[in-house]
Specification:
- By secondary structure, this protein is mainly α.
- The chain has 5 helices and 2 strands; from the N terminus they run βαβαααα.
- The protein has helices at about 15-20, 35-50, 50-65, 75-85, 100-115, and strands spanning about 10, 25-30.
- The chain has a two-stranded parallel sheet with strand order 1-2.
- Helix 1 (about 15-20) links the parallel strand 1 (about 10) and strand 2 (about 25-30).
- Helix 2 runs antiparallel to helix 3 and helix 4 crosses helix 5 (about 100-115).
- It is globular and about 45 Å long.
Length: about 120
């Protein structure tokens, strides 16, 4: 890696985390990690240890779901995921609104077909 030793590169995009770690990133500021901490821990820890096969598997498990996280603004999507996981009631502050029924259905479908 050619980055200065005192410069820490972190990812701000869930799907770019693994590729960025492959070139020297050391962490992530994540949306989906709030709902799927075990998956993100596996991905980041595996990548930091050089086990890119395990990291890739974790990344692919969130790929379908990630597509819906920003469809109606952040944090609307992830709050719906947390609601579907039974971890909270879906409340957002104005001017945001809870996700649309279409987005909710897409999130549920993605959660059912994902393996995280």
């Amino acid at each position: 890696h050619q980055k200065p030793k005192d410069f820490m590169l972190i990812s701000g995009d869930d799907l770019l985390t693994l590729p960025l770690m492959a070139i020297g990133a050391t962490g992530v500021i994540s949306v989906l990690a709030n709902a799927l901490p075990d998956t993100f821990y596996t991905m980041v820890d595996s990548a930091l240890k050089g086990n890119y096969t395990a990291a890739q598997k974790a990344l692919y498990s969130i790929e379908k779901l990630n597509a819906f996280m920003y469809a109606e603004g952040n944090p609307v999507g992830v709050k719906q995921v947390l609601t579907e996981l039974g971890l909270m009631e879906n409340h957002v502050r104005l001017p945001l609104l809870p996700c649309s029924e279409t987005l909710r259905e897409n999130i549920i479908k993605a959660m059912k077909t994902s393996k995280f």
